[in-house]
Design the sequence.
């Protein structure tokens, strides 16, 4: 038995598990999405792509996911940078604080936001009292509410991805940059940011994928009026129920995420090449 | 090119004072070495000149201007780190151009010109397009040097830049540093724990011990007239043996704890308890003759030389000899030394 077959044998259980748990369902979903009463058909895709209602849902999903990813990166990078600069004890507390939202149930957490964001909730009330917003101001059932709720959940993925990369950057590089005429901000821009890029990319991939496919938080905070794709899929399955159309939407979501990820993956690929 | 003046510099980390009031005047164009064992505060002092470390008390002046409160980027210095600190995401040429770009020195063409000149100075003109990690340690070192000199800073700070290199490369780099200093006349502060490096490179050596200046002077002064026991032990790793200086029949002699006598220079004025500093390379060993005897503990073969580790009056004594002298372990050997080469340090 040579090395190759030996390696293959060793990997076999893993490959089988992946095949059964991962590739098989996806294949089934793909098949389902093109199944019609009279054999294979693309009518479900045509229906989705020709209906402005569904296109709007798709566009909203992508737009909100990008926005959420961007906000996570804007908060996550400084947060991770601060974590690398403070002592180990404070860093532990910061990490705990960041991952705390992940330790509670998504439903409980989202209801918490509903309390805070609803018409008579803490935040709109406060903003109204301060005279910053008008009588009719609402946060619940808006895209803003979805973004707020999602950023809270996804921030740890971004912050910890970046933290992992930042801790491996030699601190002398920043000092060297300072002695070569960089101000603090110029050092961040010319040294820290480029070197942290793999972490930012990895965190963005996680954030984008998770927010594009998330269901509970957008559904509860956005309400039925503001639907994202995952919610639309859910509705197709439960309300109509139209399994092939739901599968077609899932395939579109899947393909859409792949489409956005491809350049990202290429970006990191060349960085390490 | 500029002078540097340190006035009564103190530094405390968590209430422990590591620098106890250091004052130092460095002339324009001078090559000065801060020499000392690890933990003596030499690197901390250098980092204070760079602005990477705050001072607890005292003043730092560069070019007659108080820079104590200025951040590093406003001090017009260049520093070379022990780990080189090349930016891994930039090519060699971009690394060397970095200080020019950040300080806005010259336009793009002038910068390229300077980068090319600096890289040629360190004989790396052909490697500009490579990434730092594709270079050997010695080459990375040269890139770091090129990057440090390219902007002709007022002060060049070198933090043990040669300690990660193997012996041959280190010798080459020493020559290169001397030549570059002669050509550019940059005020240079060089931190090292290696006395040979300090002796061969500097105009002046500042010997630091436990956060204080132990002695300063030209390499020749430091080597030939060490002022303290620490200095003579650190420079030339002299043997320190306690003895009592008494008047003998033919002038002063040192009497060791076991009663053996060693003649001293007739000019020696010290009397009473003292420490005798004997350089390893000044001692001559022989099997017979008159003079104090030491017992051989072990011999270390160094190739060109032998080092004998002996015991004299209960103290370890080391001597460097020609490599053909063969004494057995446990043998008693007679020591002889030119009395003028013996230093007596009053206790």
Sequence:
């Amino acid at each position: 038995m040579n090395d190759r077959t030996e390696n293959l044998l060793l990997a076999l259980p893993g490959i089988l598990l992946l095949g059964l748990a991962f590739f098989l369902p996806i294949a089934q979903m793909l098949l389902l999405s093109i199944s019609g009463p009279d054999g294979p058909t693309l009518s479900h895709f045509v229906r989705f792509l020709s209906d402005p209602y569904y296109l709007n849902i798709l566009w909203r999903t992508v737009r909100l996911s990008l926005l959420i990813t961007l906000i996570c990166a804007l908060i996550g990078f400084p947060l991770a940078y601060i974590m690398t600069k403070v002592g180990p004890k404070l860093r532990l507390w910061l990490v705990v604080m960041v991952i705390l939202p992940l330790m509670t149930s998504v439903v409980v957490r989202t209801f918490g936001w509903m309390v805070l964001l609803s018409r008579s909730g803490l935040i709109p009330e406060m903003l109204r009292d301060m005279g910053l917003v008008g009588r009719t101001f609402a946060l619940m059932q808006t895209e803003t509410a979805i973004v707020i709720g999602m950023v809270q959940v996804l921030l740890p993925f971004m912050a910890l991805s970046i933290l992992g990369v930042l801790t491996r950057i030699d601190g002398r590089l920043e000092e060297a940059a300072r002695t070569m005429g960089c101000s603090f901000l110029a050092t961040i821009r010319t040294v820290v940011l480029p070197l942290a890029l793999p972490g930012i990319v990895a965190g963005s991939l996680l954030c984008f994928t998770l927010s594009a496919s998330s269901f509970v938080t957008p559904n509860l905070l956005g309400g039925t009026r503001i639907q994202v794709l995952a919610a639309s899929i859910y509705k197709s399955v439960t309300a109509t129920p139209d399994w092939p159309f739901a599968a077609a939407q899932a395939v579109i979501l899947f393909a859409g995420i792949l489409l956005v990820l491809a350049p990202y993956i290429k970006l990191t690929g060349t960085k390490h090449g | 090119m500029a002078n540097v003046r340190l006035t009564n510099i103190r530094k405390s980390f968590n209430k422990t004072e590591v620098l106890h009031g250091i004052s130092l005047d460095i002339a324009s164009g001078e090559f000065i070495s801060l020499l000392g064992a690890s933990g003596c505060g030499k690197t901390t002092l250098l980092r204070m000149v760079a602005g990477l470390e705050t001072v607890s008390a005292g003043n730092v002046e560069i070019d007659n201007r108080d820079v104590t409160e200025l951040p590093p980027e406003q001090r017009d210095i260049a520093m070379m780190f022990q780990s080189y600190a090349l930016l891994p995401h930039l090519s060699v040429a971009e690394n060397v151009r970095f200080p020019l770009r950040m300080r806005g020195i010259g336009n793009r063409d002038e910068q390229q010109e300077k980068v090319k000149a600096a890289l040629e100075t360190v004989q790396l003109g052909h490697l500009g397009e490579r990434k730092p990690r594709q270079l050997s340690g010695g080459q990375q070192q040269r890139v770091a040097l090129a990057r440090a000199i390219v902007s002709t800073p007022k002060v060049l700070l070198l933090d043990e830049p040669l300690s990660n290199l193997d012996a041959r490369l280190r010798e080459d780099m020493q020559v290169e540093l001397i030549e570059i200093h002669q050509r550019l006349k940059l005020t240079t502060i060089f931190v090292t724990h290696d006395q040979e490096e300090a002796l061969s490179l500097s105009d002046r050596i500042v010997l630091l011990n436990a956060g204080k200046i132990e002695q300063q002077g030209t390499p020749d002064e430091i080597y030939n007239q060490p002022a303290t026991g620490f200095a003579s032990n650190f420079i030339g790793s002299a043997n320190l043996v306690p003895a009592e200086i008494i008047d003998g029949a033919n002038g002063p002699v040192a009497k060791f704890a076991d009663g053996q006598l060693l003649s001293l220079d007739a000019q020696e004025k010290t009397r009473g308890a003292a420490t005798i500093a004997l350089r390893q390379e000044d001692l001559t060993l022989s099997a017979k003759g008159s003079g104090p005897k030491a017992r051989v503990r072990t011999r270390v073969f160094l190739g060109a030389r032998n080092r004998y580790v002996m015991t004299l009056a209960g103290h370890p004594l080391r001597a460097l000899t020609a490599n053909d002298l063969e004494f057995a372990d446990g043998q008693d050997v007679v020591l002889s030394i030119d009395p003028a080469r013996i230093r007596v340090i009053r206790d």
Notes: Chain A has one domain: 46-272. The radius of gyration of chain A is 23 Å.
